[in-house]
Amino acid sequence: MTDLIHDWPTAYPALDVSAEFRTHDEDFQVSEITNRKLHESGPHLYLQIEKRGTNTQWLARQLANHAKLDLKDIGFAGLKDRHAVTRQWFSLPIKNSEPDLTHLFNKDDFTLLSKGYYGVKLKRGALGGNAFRIVLRNVKGDRAQINQRLELIRNQGVPNYFGEQRFGHDFDNVKQALHFFETGKRPRNRQKNSMYMSAARSYLFNNMLAQRIKNRSWDQPMLGEVFGFAGSLRGFTQENTSEERARLRAQRIHPSCALWGKGESLSQHDLLALEQQQAQRFPVLAVGLEKQGMKQERRATRMLLPDLFWHWVDDTCLVLRFNLASGYFATSVLRELGDIQQAQRGGESESME
Question: What residues are labeled active site?
């Protein structure tokens, strides 16, 4: 069995700081950001729903049941946490007439905020990002140091790790991917299979990023660099022009690492060697992803938070607000502050994307 290594370093020196987040649902709020303009009619009904105490997939099943649709007909852009107040969009196809969802929205856990119509189903990842409001409680540590660290994060960003939620409890999603690759026994549930593939690819990326943090190149180009944009899966090779250097200084482009899959990598020289070294450390994952036809893509190694704001409620309570691109994780921000742990409440967490 492949030994999983996940001692992933932080970019900044450790602070003697501890805190808890998500003590109450209201302490963790996420709102999807979208520029989509809805219409007064169309083949797909779009619903913006505020939910608490339930996860995205459970709500999608409720919508399917009440609308008498198959679960696969329900569209949503991403998974949101159970223990949180989240505002996200769902889409339903209108086959004969608009479904009556009155009974569903009579429940206190769900509130219909707005609705409209659009020409196509809402697909995974099809959003501009997520706006977060996170309350940290039982904060222990020097307030001046915490403020200084937050200023540093706002100016320089943080490593763009995939969050621990992507991997499941005790990295079970990665273990399931390993089991599939080693035995050939594909999960019957297509959704779980996709989740395991994603976890495997994210795990390889995090190990590549960890190496770039160790050699201090997570926010600086390496020889053979591939630059990318926030939230994009594409990249372009380093040309070392004055215009390119200016874009890098202005933080409009970012270094990147591979999201592993089949196909020739855009990276060269030192960066290519680093990525291949990490793939060779976990050959079952790398080869398995290639055999499953996963296309090799890119992900920025740096996450910027120019709109990070915070205020102290009192000496032990801190409120953070920031926006992240789709697929970026709030835990990657929190880990750079110190020992920030989720409050023990029981139940599962889907995602902090």
Answer: 81
316 lies in some domain = yes
- Does some domain include residue 206? no
Cα–Cα distance list, 100 to 70, 92, 94, 106, 167 (Å): 16, 12, 11, 12, 37
Domain total for the chain? 1
Query: What sign has the CA pseudo-torsion 115, 118, 121, 126?
Result: negative
Please give the sequence-ordered ranges of beta strands (E in DSSP) within the chain, or none if there are none. 18-21, 28-33, 44-52, 75-76, 85-93, 110-118, 129-140, 158-159, 226-228, 236-237, 254-259, 297-300, 302-303, 309-314, 317-324, 339-342
User: Which uninterrupted H or E stretch holds 144?
Assistant: helix 143-156
**Could you tell me which residues come within 8 angstroms of residue 150 by beta carbon, excluding any fewer than 6 positions away?**
308, 310, 320, 337
Over range 316-329, report the average pLDDT.
95
Q: Which two tokens stand for residue 314?
A: 């009192």
Instruction: Say if residues 284 and 178 touch (Cβ distance below 8 Å).
Output: yes
Domain with 334 in it: 28-132+312-342
Q: Is 3 within 8 Å of 174 (Cβ atoms)? A: no
pTM comes to 0.90
Query: If DSSP codes are grouped into helix, strand and coil, which group holds residue 85?
Result: strand
- How many whole angstroms separate alpha carbon 159 and alpha carbon 304? 9
Taking only the tens place, the pLDDT of each residue in 11-46 is: 999 999 999 999 999 999 999 999 899 999 999 999
Angle formed at CA 162 by CA 239 and CA 28, multiple of 5 degrees:
125
Side chain identity at residue 280, one-letter code: Q
Residue 350 binned pLDDT confidence (cut-offs 50, 70, 90): very low
Q: Is 173 within the bounds of a domain?
A: no
Name the residue with tokens 């607000």: 321
Q: What is the CATH number of the domain that holds 121?
A: 3.30.2350.20
Residues 213 and 292: beta-carbon distance below 8 Å: no
What is the distance between the alpha carbons of residues 278 and 50, in angstroms, rounded to a whole number?
41
Per the domain annotation, does 150 fall within a domain? no
